[in-house]
Predict the 3D structure of the following.
Amino acid sequence: MRSIFPNKRRVVLAGALALVCVCLNVVLAHAEPEKKTDQKPAPKKLTGAELYAINCNRCHPERYATEFTSAQWKTIVTHMRVRANLPAAQAKQILKFLQEDAGN
């Protein structure tokens, strides 16, 4: 007697695949939806060296920290904070960076 299905193995595999798809759909339908937050990730905090490179190189070539003393850098950064409209926190980080290697 001849089977109505030309290839039984193919039918079994197709049935198994259909069952897996149904199960997957059921699981995904009942899965907890992803929680979406409207909050943006916190911006990366820049180091004093990065802030120095970004802000000071806008108008003039970069100067080496050893070119001035700590006291001179304090005067320069105070002056440039006003001219470049730098926030106090950024100016403080830049000054700290420059004073670490300042020529005393």
About this structure: Residues 48-100 form one domain. The chain has a mean pLDDT of 80. The longest helix spans residues 8-30.
